[in-house]
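Page 42, continued from yesterday. The earlier attempt failed because a stray header line got pasted into the input along with the sequence. Redoing it now with the clean sequence only.
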Amino acid sequence: MKRKPITTAAIALIFALASAYGGNSSAQDRSKPAAAKIERISIATGAIGGIYNVLGGGMAKLLREKLGGIDVTAETTNASVDNVRLVGTKQADIGFSTSIAVVQGTKGEGPFKGVKYPVAGLANIYPQFLWAVTLESSGINNLADLRGKRVSTSNPGSGSELDALNLMAAVGIKVGEIKRERLPPQQAAEALKDRRIDALLHTAGQKQPAWEDIANSPGATIKFLNTAVAVGGLERDWGKGVYFPLTLPKGIYKGQSADVPMAAGGNCWFIRPDLPEDLVYQITKILVENLDELAKVHSEAKNIKPETAPNTPVALHPGAARYFKERGLLK
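This time it went through. Structure tokens are written below.
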């Protein structure tokens, strides 16, 4: 029998069928979009000289050295509220924040009203006191006595201002019931020393140079109010774990002869939820297993404990959760 020659159309059909049924697997692989390689990580920190900023610089250096091939930088920002917005809009990758700012940011409440910012937990870090600072001569003995007084609620848009407003609300004090100032802590301390304000509210760690300045000023005896009385109201408003009681040991400041029961709030590292799980696992591992190196950058890192690190105010990123589960720190 005489064979018919194979036409060009037939050849084209053969190749088309082969391709359709996997005969050209390399072409199929090329048609899949390749995962974008992470070349840069940005850490949103805080104001120059603040704990977030200093510790963030140390984190950036550590991650740069350990991750390899990724440029990690620490960015100066307006801290908590700013950081939630930056990470939630992918303008930064990792952020520092107070716990309450992260909670409000993901819910679209408070300063984020109407806009929800998606972020994931990386690690719970160190606690901060909710300070109510005054002078012995002020006649202010408790939080209720702040009504009618000149009170600084910290700098506008800061996590400290959020905490100050939440603290007052927890004990039933309305903003309109105080003569409000909105000063950064150092300026507020100067105003308190000069008697231009009667008290200040601020969120910060145990040892504060501004408070030491007040305590060491001639003719001024510093006084710290019991803010632990507000914890019940804070838990009512924000749930358990965002705020908690913590004691300021006696003798931390000149003239402070007794322990002071305080309310405290957490700080956390948080991260973009869309970052690859393996990368976030490595980031978590590097940070948690090198806390001694971070403590050399800022002593507050000594208060970051691996056993409490998984207790973030929002759900952990799967990569972070995987690390903590492997360490037996998370069920």
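Notes: The CA atoms of residues 11 and 17 lie 10 Å apart.
Reminder to self: strip header lines before submitting.
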